[in-house]
Amino acid sequence: MKTIRVGSGAGYSGDRIEPAAELAEKGSLDYLVFECLAERTIALAQQVRMKDPKAGFDPLLAQRMRAVLPICAKNKVKIVTNMGAANPAAAAEATREIARKLGLERLKVAAVTGDDVFAYLHATTWRSTTARRSPRSATGSFPPTPISASPRSSRP
Which of 123, 124, 117 is nearest to 144 (CA)? Predict the structure, then answer.
């Protein structure tokens, strides 16, 4: 059986960068994982992305990648992260640009996408499952019944 060594480069968005670089250098790793996403983090990233469609990823992504990409490339350590937050494609592109500037043009960078429901949520208003429940969602299960986003009547 093959052993795979995985190291944690971050446990939250604001985690220190130096230990990740040290792990990449001395940890004999196969994978270095940066776990930087939580509900609050993605909400903040979504707000940033609304102002700038090319933003919305972890603000420390560039600093982290500059610190670990050369070491990881040299030691053949693969990086796995969710620093893309609300914009994984832009984070991947930023990482490619950093790699290019570091002389690592051949480095493979990928992004997993497909879970962005922001446009859908923006177009639909959902009735609270705790306020009123339809017969189809009597248990309060997801998804709640959509209601019109337009006002029903004027209220005083």
Answer: 124
Which pair of tokens denotes residue 80? 């796995």
pTM of the model: 0.75
| pLDDT at position 123 | 67
What is residue 120's predicted lDDT score, i.e. its pLDDT? 73
Cβ atoms of 46 and 86 within 8 Å: the answer is yes
Element (H, E) at 62: helix 61-75
> Tens digit of pLDDT for each residue in 69-126?
999 999 999 999 999 999 999 999 999 999 999 999 999 999 998 887 777 776 665 5
Sign of CA pseudo-dihedral 21, 22, 27, 33: negative
Largest alpha-carbon pair distance within the chain? 71
Tokens at 69, concatenated? 């990409």
DSSP 3: -
Residue pair 25/34 in contact (Cβ under 8 Å)? The answer is no
How far apart CA 62 and CA 76 sit, in angstroms, is: 20
